[in-house]
């Protein structure tokens, strides 16, 4: 089978993106990153990741809008999505598989990814 | 007394007029010298009617034709004393429509027709040229009277006269381009000249009556005796000539370009006409009372071959009264000077507004709306129009001079005054009908004016130059009176007949309704209000009036609507007000064309017309009162709405502010958190470890800066900041800001345009804080200007009240109108899509800083790109420390 992408990280802050990529790749996940909202859906359609990590505050297009469109696009509608938010307080993220508030403990991130990743498919 | 000394006196006199006009202009800008607006000055300025032709020529005229000269004074007196209410109507309507010239008035009435304006301007130029030549001739002749027999005067005198007068007209007639076209300097100069010529003429009259004759009784006896002699055979009263001349003079006092200029364009309000209604006839009477005595005594005392046109001058000269003669010379010179200057201004305004600018706009397709990324050039149309007027003045005065050189002789010129009168009189039927009869149409006016003008040209103008023979009419009828009557008859007939069979388009009916009923036309149809278009109108206005005037007009209009800022809603009321204000500068036809081009507006529809014309005058008036009340209500409601919105906005801002702070703090915190945990892991390569520590360090710095900014804000907002002020040179401060902004916002190179000389202003302020604001604004311009070649213009100016303004303008696409009020809010990053770092506190801090310095920062729309204006007070607020 062709080598797919495990996680597509959609996040505009370069240092946060770097930290997450570092944490996840040490876990053995194959990661790709995209840093703005307006073409995020095309990226997901093209890369077909098993999991999407999505920041809420994105340039170009709000993360929640991206999420809504993802859920409305049949080919990728079932992809699990981990939403990251830097706003304090509860976030009503319709369609999110899980919400993680920034800043987060690295272990929480690792666990969230592990639990959301669809089972039965090998890691790299 | 030699011509040389006299020339020197004349030059000194002109120089004095320059100083006086300059002082008057300055005073009117500063709002001083309110008496300049008094009825006395107004009435005196009307005396521009009495040119050198009347000053010297009245005696010559009386010498040839007896009492007939009095018609030239009688016509205007009848119009002023008998019909001042009619004149007042005219002034009201003309001011309502911001009329700039007689051509503009008629064009505006007949549907803002550019062709009528072109035609009337043509008549005005044709009639004015020989008339101007006559004025130069009079100065030359008067100088010649002082020459010794055989002495030859330099031939260049008329040229120097022309140059001097054109310079005066250019300096004081084209200094500014405003919606309110008034020239206080010129008006005050001609008012003084009116006094000089009256004083001179009365002085000569008194000298003649009591010095040369034995008082009034002797003079009357001499007149009686003279009227029976052979020399007085021309002294017969021809009724048809009298009638025509009175009508012509009465028309001329309104429609001659120079008269229209002082009577209507320079009239501040119509109230002064009531005083002028009796005062101007009195002035004319005073000027005419000594004409016959001077004529008769001149005949008695001066040699027979002496030119009666110069009796006024030759009488005191022959008696060795050099002082009196000099005064007379100055009187005549004043008459010539005011006539030439005002005519040149009036005719050149017509030529520029009705010939040059429309032609130029048609030829060059000047982009009315600014293309994106042009350099911010603000008043290019303004300089184009001012230059057109300057060229117009040179052209008009120059052609007068040329005409004088080519015609060469006085005899051909003598009748030019009345010839000009009869030419301009051809516009009177259309003007009168336009004011009184709604049925008069554009085609009728065009046909009437052009036919009348053609007949005048062939039967009056050409014969007066000797290019054609006098037309032979019915026996016993005076050829001149007959020709004028024919021209006017054909003119009026065509106007009436064609108008009766014509059906004017809606736009024209709108104007005719407004002119006949004296109601402001408020039904200019506007597109649904779009602030983007209001900004386009503001940009157009800035290019014509200059930024300051345009901004003031727009701010006032917005305020009247109860809005803050510079962009009023495009209500039909505002659009028609704007168009009329523009018409005050460029004429109705051009203003309408320009406004329509910006608004993308179509023609007036019948439905628009029904709105206005369907109502009777009475309901219109009631409505206006009601409208005023509801307008007031709407204003209050609007203000309430605005403050309510503001309160709601502030409350939701508070929530948003906390959310934003949370976000801005959590973002760097997230990186620090994650990387510090990573660093705890044991098996990390050294290089990675170092890089991650670096990231933590940077993000910690970012946190600190954010906290610093927040602290700055709260300190400023809480009013606890330390006040500190010193005198600094603004130039040095800007210099440093430009350098530091380049460091803080590197990236694409931006071209900085400055005017270093204007920047050298001492300001008393807290330099560190002002520097911070400047850096912020400049760095913003560097970051957000999206032009391919960014240009940032910094301009500074000091107002008379001590305020200092600093404008920073770029050539990008600016800020959308609906965001313009938001940008000074905290965390309002304009463009979420841009990848530009920054917390969005910059402008909020700038605003607080400027407030702290006692000044303001504002976004100025319509300047091309984004434009921020910092205003610093003369002195910073005094230090106080709340405990």
TrEMBL record, chain A:
Keyword Phosphoprotein found: yes
Modified residues (4-aspartylphosphate): 55
Alphabetical UniProt keywords: Phosphoprotein
Gene3D superfamilies from the UniProt entry: 3.40.50.2300
Highest taxon of the lineage: Bacteria
Keyword Phosphoprotein attributed: yes
Domain Response regulatory, residue spans: 6-117
GO biological process per UniProt: phosphorelay signal transduction system
CDD domains (alphabetical): REC_OmpR
PANTHER family (UniProt xref): RESPONSE REGULATORY DOMAIN-CONTAINING PROTEIN, STRESS RESPONSE REGULATOR PROTEIN 1
Protein name in the entry: Response regulator receiver domain-containing protein
Native organism taxonomy: Bacteria, Pseudomonadati, Pseudomonadota, Alphaproteobacteria, Rhodobacterales
TrEMBL record, chain B:
Keyword Transmembrane helix: yes
Membrane topology, from the record: Multi-pass membrane protein
Catalytic activity reported: ATP + protein L-histidine = ADP + protein N-phospho-L-histidine
UniProt cross-references to Pfam families, sorted A to Z: HATPase_c, HisKA
GO CC, alphabetical: membrane
Superkingdom of this protein's organism: Bacteria
Sorted UniProt keywords: Kinase, Membrane, Phosphoprotein, Transferase, Transmembrane, Transmembrane helix, Two-component regulatory system
InterPro entries documented for this protein: HATPase_C_sf (IPR036890), HATPase_dom (IPR003594), His_kinase_dom (IPR005467), HisK_dim/P_dom (IPR003661), HisK_dim/P_sf (IPR036097), Na/Glc_symporter_sf (IPR038377), Na/solute_symporter (IPR001734), Sensor_HK_Regulatory (IPR050736)
Subcellular location: Membrane
E.C. no: 2.7.13.3
Major place of residence: membrane
Domain Histidine kinase: 660-876
Annotated TM spans: 6-24, 40-63, 69-87, 115-133, 153-174, 186-210, 242-265, 277-298, 336-363, 384-404, 410-433, 445-468, 480-501
Keyword Transmembrane: yes
The family this protein is said to belong to: Belongs to the sodium:solute symporter (SSF) (TC 2.A.21) family.
Name of the protein in its database record: histidine kinase
């Amino acid at each position: 089978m062709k080598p797919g992408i495990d996680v597509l990280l959609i996040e505009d802050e370069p240092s946060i993106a770097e930290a997450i990529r570092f944490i996840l790749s040490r876990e053995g996940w194959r990661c790709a990153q995209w840093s703005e909202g307006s073409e995020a859906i095309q990226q997901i359609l093209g890369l077909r990741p098993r999991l999407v990590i999505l920041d809420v505050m994105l340039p170009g297009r709000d993360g929640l809008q991206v999420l809504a469109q993802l859920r409305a696009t049949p080919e990728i509608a079932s992809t699990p999505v981990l939403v990251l938010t830097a706003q304090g307080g509860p976030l009503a993220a319709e369609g999110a598989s899980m919400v993680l508030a920034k800043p987060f403990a690295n272990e929480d991130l690792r666990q969230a990814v592990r639990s959301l990743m669809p089972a039965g498919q090998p890691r790299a | 007394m030699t011509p040389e000394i006299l020339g020197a006196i004349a030059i000194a006199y002109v120089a004095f007029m320059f100083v006086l006009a300059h002082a008057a202009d300055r005073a009117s800008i500063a709002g001083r010298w309110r008496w300049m607006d008094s009825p006395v000055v107004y009435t005196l300025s009307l005396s521009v009617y009495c040119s050198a032709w009347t000053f010297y020529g009245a005696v010559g005229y009386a010498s040839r034709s007896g009492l007939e000269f009095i018609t030239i004074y009688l016509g205007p007196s009848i119009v002023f004393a008998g019909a001042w209410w009619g004149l007042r109507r005219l002034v009201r309507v003309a001011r309502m429509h911001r009329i700039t010239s007689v051509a503009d008035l008629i064009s505006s009435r007949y549907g803002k027709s550019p062709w009528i304006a072109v035609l009337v301007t043509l008549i005005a130029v044709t009639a004015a040229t020989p008339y101007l030549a006559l004025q130069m001739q009079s100065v030359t002749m008067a100088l010649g009277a002082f020459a010794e027999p055989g002495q030859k005067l330099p031939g260049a005198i008329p040229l120097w006269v022309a140059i001097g007068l054109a310079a005066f007209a250019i300096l004081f007639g084209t200094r500014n381009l405003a919606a309110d076209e008034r020239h206080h300097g010129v008006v005050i100069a001609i008012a003084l000249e009116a006094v000089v010529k009256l004083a001179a003429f009365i002085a000569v009259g008194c000298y003649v009556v009591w010095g040369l004759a034995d008082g009034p009784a002797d003079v009357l006896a001499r007149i009686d005796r003279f009227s029976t002699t052979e020399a007085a055979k021309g002294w017969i009263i021809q009724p048809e000539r009298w009638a025509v001349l009175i009508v012509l003079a009465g028309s001329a006092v309104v429609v001659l370009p120079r008269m229209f200029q002082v009577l209507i364009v320079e009239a501040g309000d119509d109230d002064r006409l009531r005083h002028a209604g009796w005062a101007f006839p009195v002035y004319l009477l005073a000027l005419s009372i000594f004409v016959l005595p001077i004529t008769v005594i001149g005949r008695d005392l001066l040699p027979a071959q002496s030119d009666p046109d110069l009796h006024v001058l030759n009488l005191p000269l022959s008696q060795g009264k050099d002082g009196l003669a000099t005064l007379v010379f100055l009187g005549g010179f004043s008459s010539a000077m005011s006539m030439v200057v005002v005519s040149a201004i009036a005719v050149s305004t017509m030529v520029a507004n009705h010939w040059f600018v429309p032609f130029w706009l048609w030829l060059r397709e000047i982009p009315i709306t600014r293309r994106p990324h042009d350099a911010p050039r603000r008043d290019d149309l303004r300089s184009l129009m001012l230059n057109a007027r300057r060229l117009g003045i040179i052209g008009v005065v120059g052609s007068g001079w040329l005409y004088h050189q080519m015609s060469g002789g006085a005899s051909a010129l003598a009748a030019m005054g009345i010839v000009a009168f009869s030419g301009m009189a051809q516009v009177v039927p259309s003007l009168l009908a336009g004011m009184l009869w709604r049925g008069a149409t554009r085609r009728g006016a065009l046909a009437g004016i052009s036919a009348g003008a053609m007949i005048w040209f062939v039967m009056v103008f050409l014969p007066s130059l000797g290019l054609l023979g006098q037309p032979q009419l019915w026996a016993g009828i005076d050829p001149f009176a007959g020709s004028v009557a024919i021209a006017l008859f054909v003119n009026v007939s065509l106007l009436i007949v064609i108008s009766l069979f014509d059906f004017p388009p809606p736009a024209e009916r709108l104007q005719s309704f407004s002119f006949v009923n004296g109601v402001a036309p408020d039904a200019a149809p506007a597109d649904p209000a779009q602030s983007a278009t209001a900004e386009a109108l503001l940009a157009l206005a800035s290019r014509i009036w200059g930024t300051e005037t345009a901004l003031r007009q727009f701010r006032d209009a917005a305020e009247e609507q109860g809005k803050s800022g510079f962009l009023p809603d495009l209500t039909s009321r505002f659009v028609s007000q704007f168009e009329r204000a523009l018409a005050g500068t460029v004429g109705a036809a051009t203003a309408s064309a320009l406004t329509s081009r910006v608004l993308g507006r179509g023609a007036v529809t019948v439905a628009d017309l029904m709105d206005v014309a369907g109502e009777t005058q009475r309901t219109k008036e009631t409505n206006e009162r009601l409208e005023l009340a509801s307008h007031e209500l709407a204003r209050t409601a609007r203000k309430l709405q605005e403050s309510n919105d503001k309160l709601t906005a502030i409350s939701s801002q508070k929530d948003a502010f906390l959310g934003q702070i949370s976000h801005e703090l959590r973002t760097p915190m997230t990186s620090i958190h994650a990387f510090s945990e990573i660093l705890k892991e044991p098996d990390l390569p050294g290089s990675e470890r170092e890089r991650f520590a670096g990231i933590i360090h940077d993000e910690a710095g970012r946190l600190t800066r954010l906290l610093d900014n927040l602290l700055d804000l709260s300190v400023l907002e809480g009013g606890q900041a330390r006040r500190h002020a010193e005198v600094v040179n603004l130039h040095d401060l800007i210099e440093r800001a430009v350098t530091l902004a380049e460091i803080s916002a590197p990236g694409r190179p931006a071209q900085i345009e400055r005017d270093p000389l204007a920047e050298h202003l001492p300001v008393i302020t807290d330099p560190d804080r002002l520097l911070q604001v400047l850096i912020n604004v400049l760095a913003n311009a560097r970051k957000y200007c999206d032009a391919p070649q960014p240009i940032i213009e910094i301009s500074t100016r000091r107002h008379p009240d001590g305020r200092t303004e600093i404008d920073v303008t770029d050539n990008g696409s600016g800020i959308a109108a609906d965001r313009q009020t938001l940008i000074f809010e905290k965390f309002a990053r304009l463009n979420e899509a841009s990848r530009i770092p920054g917390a969005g506190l910059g402008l909020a801090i700038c605003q607080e800083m400027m407030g702290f310095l006692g000044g303001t920062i504002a976004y100025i729309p319509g300047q091309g790109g984004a434009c921020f204006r910092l205003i610093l007070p003369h002195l910073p607020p005094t230090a106080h420390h709340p405990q």
